[in-house]
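This part of the workshop introduces the protein records we will be handling. An example says more than a description, so a record of this kind follows:
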Amino acid sequence: MENSQLLTYLLFTPIVGSLIILFIKPDQEKLIRWMGVFISGVAFVISMIIYVAFDSSNPAFQFIHKVLWIESLNVSYHVGIDGISLLLVMLTTFLTPLTLISSWKGITKQVKMFTFSMLFLQAGMLGVFIALDMFLFYVFWEVMLIPMYFIIGVWGGVERIYAAVKFFIYTMFGSLLMLVAIIWLAVYASEPLGYFTTNLLELYQVGPTIPNEIQYYMFMAFFFSFAIKVPLFPLHTWLPDAHVQAPTAGSVILAGVLLKMGTYGLLRFNLPLFPQSSVHFAPFISILAVIGIIYGALVAMVQSDMKKLVAYSSVSHLGFVVLGIFAFTTESLQGAVIQMVNHGLSTGALFLLVGFIYERTHNREISYYGGLAKLVPFFAFALLFTSLSSIGLPGLNGFIGEFLILVGSFQSQVLDSWWFTIFAASGVIFAAVYLLWMYERVVFGKVTNPKLEGLTDLDAREMFVLIPIFILIVWIGIYPSTFLDISDTSVKTILDNVINNTYNFFS
């Protein structure tokens, strides 16, 4: 769909909404909260309109809107989506209003600036997923850092400043690598094209023709930038600090959406632009992914803090996604895409539940709890359901993504070894160990801590936040084709591009 402005409406809804909030008096907290939920809800409605109108059988980018921005550099405001970016756009618009509702009691200071930051962050994340101009993509990639820095640094825990600065420095370092690669790629492409451009669709034509000795360096610059964001082992050390110190809403968005920007970048940029390099480095990257799966799970096992346990589980789960991307089979790539969504739902829900119990007790230590099944049965059920989803129980969403990734990596010609699958599969077992062990210590047994007496169960607002997530968890687990069909054509287009440009390897 050419020259559709729907994506522009979607992008500017949270931007305009955040500016409107700036004009509301700070003491009108209730109005500010409702405005934030309403504006993010409008964005969700627009994304649903886009979903209904999206043609999943069409491999081309749709809802394209292009306006020349910086004429001297041939830079445009150029947006559009395919099936992969549509799923992530919908995940973003789905989670944002829920996180704003979840923070109703958790965020009590500077509510106006918090709501402004969340909406501005939503705009930055949407911009990353819909940008088809590399300069525009870079702008949104950097813009998104600012509100997240303040969300962690202002409304976070005791060591929030340290965590915020660490998050900012890591991501900024990766961003600079990407900026160098974007400039290098655009300058290199100006010779065969005859003009300088940052148009991603035009660069797709040039990227695969770049000689390997140059392409390898460009690939690695993009890869390190995205690997920091994933985060891939051993570039993950910023994540536990950021998660633990961030407020609940920040942790949910960080796990649910921001980490997916790294894996999305690998799919959108590394594979189509540098197919030969992608295949060349695939075994090395897959080894890092498998190490991340096992390392993240083992470190999660020994955590005493529930939030830190969930944070390290993200390192493990995102390792599965990276393995699926670099196995280069339809099943593994489809599994990687759906697992991005699954992780956003399951881990997002886990962070919400940890946040809800923390608001009541102001303690996240596993040893503090015990016997919660007797005190807060609804919370106990919700925690079990979400843990089973994260583990990958058949019938729930996590199973679909991990199963497709393991099947695809087992069949991979690029990896050409079933050892990747064997070691990766152990991560599923480890996930069951650390999550069920945590659940057993928190929920079962006797109530030994007198401070837990009088603990209140989930209220209507908290259940309202969780139920939509639970519905999607079951929906994807039972009928995944609703979501797999959206990304199928886009995934096959990327894979065909890689195979066609590395034909000697696959033949």
User: Anything to note?
Assistant: The two ends are 35 Å apart (CA to CA). The CA atoms of residues 13 and 278 lie 36 Å apart. The first strand starts at residue 62 and ends at 70.
